[in-house]
Amino acid sequence: MFRLPRLIRPPLHRAAVFLRLASSLATFSSKPANPRSNSVSAATTDAIVGLVAADGRSLEADLDRLDPVLSHPLVSATLRALTDRGVPAARFFDWLALSRGFSPNAHAHNLLVENAGRLADYPAMSRALASMSARRIPLTERSFAFLNSSQGSPNDTAIAILRTLDEVGGPCRSAGVFSLVKALASIGEFDAAMSVIQDTARGARYYNALMAVKCKAGDFHGAREVFDEMRRSGSGPNANSWNFLLGCLLKNGRVAEACELVEAMERSESNDIPNSLTYEILAYHACRAGRMDSAMQILEQMSLEKMTPRITIHTAFIKGYLYTGRIEDACRYVSDMSTRDRYSVNRNYSLLAKLLCKAGRIVEAGRILYELMEREGLLPDRSAYVRVIKDLHKIGKGDLAIKLKLISQKLSVHAESVR
């Protein structure tokens, strides 16, 4: 049976005190990505919507004469606009299917289902779902985004959707039930979501979808209620169910309860509870609290169990060491991981170099990239390389910058020669 060893428990309990005091510590964060500019022509979208809304007998010929340059962004924008205006999109979608050289993507098919749902046109929804099922196009919760603005009660609307899914059958039925549960949970309609689960598929993944939403909102009590209902139904819980609860407790600083939960997981009769993700959750939160030695013990146990940590754990360790001022340990960590997890070598070194630059440790950043290229024979991420080179020149360390450029050129030439 796969169990968390005893060596992990003492660090966990000692970490409780530090995690309770960790509220004053800054958490790791990253800058949000800049939103991409929308290149879709609003004029073209408006022209198409106007023609479709008129619903003339010559709609298809009118669209042919308009001859828009079809693209997935244009089609998505048009379908969303039609839905917002309450205009059926089926004829437009049928015309798309006849357009040579263009095939609507999965997102467009889901938007078509949403359009039919917003209009409560379940025959149209049935046709759209049947088309998706025949093409094995994945159905997502986007199809049911209209639930938030549905005129009927969420429960009545869910029943109508389930009836339609049952009529269509095929791959869309099981995917549709799961997506419906997620969509209902996302708008806070947990009673309706639970009814769907109880009427259709009492599986752990369906309950877990509800737990994920509640845990994300910090509602441990609500998540535990779903967990208990899952047990009563005989559908689980599985490792993910336990991990949702564990992550929620640790995220909200409830460490003593988290330790008790881990002990309960250890007593589980299932061989995959706890699993590798359990270790990662424990290590991640220990890093966030600055308890690096405890986190390292957990990582070592993962190694004994022959588990490879994901990149998110490496990031947590690197940031944790730097936050606590243990720069040498951060450098030692990326060096040690280069032999244990080859897939993360470039990412780890590059991240450390950028963070060192941000902390004003420019020379150390240069040395880290030099080690990556000289010892590991790997090129760093372009952004990390450019940042380090520029910062080295700024502080008058052009000699190190030149060394980095020379070895980078050498590796680039070698990479070209072996292609």
Automatic annotation (TrEMBL):
Keyword Glycoprotein found: no
Q: List, alphabetically, the Gene3D superfamilies matched.
A: Tetratricopeptide repeat domain
Q: Which keywords appear in this protein's UniProt record, sorted alphabetically?
A: Repeat, Transit peptide
Q: Which Pfam families match?
A: PPR, PPR_2
| Annotated PPR repeat ranges | 203-237, 238-268, 275-309, 345-380
Q: Which residues form a coiled coil?
A: none
Which PROSITE patterns does this entry report, sorted A to Z?
PPR
Q: Which family does it belong to?
A: Belongs to the PPR family. P subfamily.
This chain belongs to the protein called Pentacotripeptide-repeat region of PRORP domain-containing protein
Q: What is the lineage of its organism?
A: Eukaryota, Viridiplantae, Streptophyta, Embryophyta, Tracheophyta
